[in-house]
Amino acid sequence: MNAQLANWDDLRVFLAVARAGSLSGAARSLGVNHSTVFRRVAGLEETLGVRLFDRLPTGYALTPVGEETLGIVERIEDDVTALDRTVTGQDLRLSGTVRITAIDMLAFWLLPDHLRRFRETHSGIEVEIVVGNEALNLSRRETDIALRIGNTPPETLVGRKVGQLEFAIYGAPDYCAAHPGADLAQQDWIGFDSAHAPLTRQLEKLLPGMRPAVRSNSVACAVRLAKAGLGLALLPCAIAELKPDLIRVAELPESFGLDLWLLTHEDLRHTARIRAVLEFLTPALAESLKKCTKGPEI
Amino acid sequence: MNAQLANWDDLRVFLAVARAGSLSGAARSLGVNHSTVFRRVAGLEETLGVRLFDRLPTGYALTPVGEETLGIVERIEDDVTALDRTVTGQDLRLSGTVRITAIDMLAFWLLPDHLRRFRETHSGIEVEIVVGNEALNLSRRETDIALRIGNTPPETLVGRKVGQLEFAIYGAPDYCAAHPGADLAQQDWIGFDSAHAPLTRQLEKLLPGMRPAVRSNSVACAVRLAKAGLGLALLPCAIAELKPDLIRVAELPESFGLDLWLLTHEDLRHTARIRAVLEFLTPALAESLKKCTKGPEI
DNA sequence: AGGTGTCCTTGCATGAATGCACAGCTTGCC
DNA sequence: GGCAAGCTGTGCATTCATGCAAGGACACCT
Known about the structure:
The structure is a homodimer. By secondary structure, the first copy, chain A, is α/β, with parallel strands linked by helices. Chain A has three domains: 9-88, Orthogonal Bundle (Arc Repressor Mutant, subunit A); 96-163 and 259-285, D-Maltodextrin-Binding Protein, domain 2, CATH 3.40.190.10; 165-257, D-Maltodextrin-Binding Protein, domain 2 (3-Layer(aba) Sandwich), CATH 3.40.190.290. Chain A is built from eleven helices and eleven strands. The first copy, chain A, has helices at 9-20, 23-30, 34-48, 64-88, 104-109, 111-121, 173-178, 197-206, 219-227, 237-240, 272-291, and strands spanning 53-56, 59-62, 96-102, 125-131, 145-149, 157-171, 189-192, 214-216, 232-236, 247-250, 257-265. In chain A, strands 3, 4, 5, 6, 7, 8, 9, 10 and 11 form a nine-stranded mixed beta sheet that branches. In chain A, helix 1 (9-20) packs across helix 3 (34-48) and helix 6 (111-121) packs across helix 11. Residues 294-298 of chain A have low confidence and may be disordered. The structure holds a DNA duplex.
């Protein structure tokens, strides 16, 4: 057996420091004390007999041999992650943790009630909601399930379209009273950033050249901004209709909706607890979205 | 960060058990207590949520998911070994351990005196001699330096031919007195196994169809067998000439010698301590082999 | 110049990992 | 059938890795 490197786990610590650029940052990402990281890195350098990092006042920077090491350790990490997916995919226990990621809007308003009901029948499964407006990486197991809007999923992800989110224009009652008139181009608007490109494009199409008074990467934040009277916003009916302090200002000239997908990684689809969550949420979300559509149908 | 597998080093323990086929065997190869291995494997299976091994009375056998895991972990081990070679190759310290492997004959009689002198000038470097009659793998860092007879080295190994071992036929004085006569075919012979194919082939060529009375994988053992009077043996002059209780029986019809190589891995050639050992031994062995040739030169 | 925040490094106490010793089971040999 | 050897599994004592707390250094801002 290899006598030189007797603890492969030191490489995991090395990787964290390389990525964080500091002991403290690595400690935070690893969930350990910074003094532990200090000793682990020092021990690894002693064992290998080389300096992996230069010590700077602002943190740790990779040396050239550290750069070479990083390249190899990233391959190791890829293998560890693949292993993790492979064996987790065969985990038949209906217990443990399932991590779901969704943008804040969906996480706040679509998931909690469903997950409460899910827990009634699967008390052994803990669900962790990861709220984020950046797409987490399922291949790296940053999350187990993703609730995503918009595009068709990447090839390695599997799942179903659980429904469609219809969008309409909403504003606060006070704002609308103070800004009567049907000319949308004369109104103030709440916009989005590049993380919500479909919404941004739709607004641009609706009102060419319109410049929003305020923008956000968070749809939940946009809802709040609208409620605060900063302007009109293009919001999903399923969420906005739940808000008595938001009123639908106008229909879009043509119907605009985005697909909502429930996704996991190909290797995890057979993991019992992940499968259980997917099988519960798919019909539940579909039912929710069916009820919450724009306006009464004739 | 990967929350599922928080200790990569458990994979190193898994690998040892997979290869040894038992907790006890893995404990021996890892140099830890078997109860430690027991707990590490149990912990890994708990973390991953799968059974990696079937428990048998005779040891541990891989389950199907264990087989899949083994495939991935072997890739990880290859990366760890490559990393080890890469960084060890840049280790500039003249301290630490250098491992040399050689067959027993060479290890016993060629290395000790040279290494004693080496230590006089490099007291910080510890040398470990790994005696074995199987070729250890330098790519996997089972050894740092190999002293090898015979073939030109594989492409990834670098080193020099330090000399040539001349061979001649030797026997014990008592045996020779009791078996006078020049007909070698009538003599008893001590042979070798497939680990010493060049010697076996040479004997076969010398005496076609000859079947040795006894065979061994160890040249050192063959020397002892010859001294014990079990027959004649084809032995290297550099070693046999040192033995007053072996006499040279006859010259070979044509000179027969094998090259002796001092080799290391391409990635390790710049490791300071390995380089120091090579630079000392190369001329020292060459000098030794120059002195020990068959018979006095005219 | 002083205050704040971030960083690294180290000594000491604590808890987790490990080794030790033991027990039990199975297999193979005589 | 008895014995030896190999194996797994567990309780308790020991060792070592880790966290805590403290100190020092540096950069940035006022």
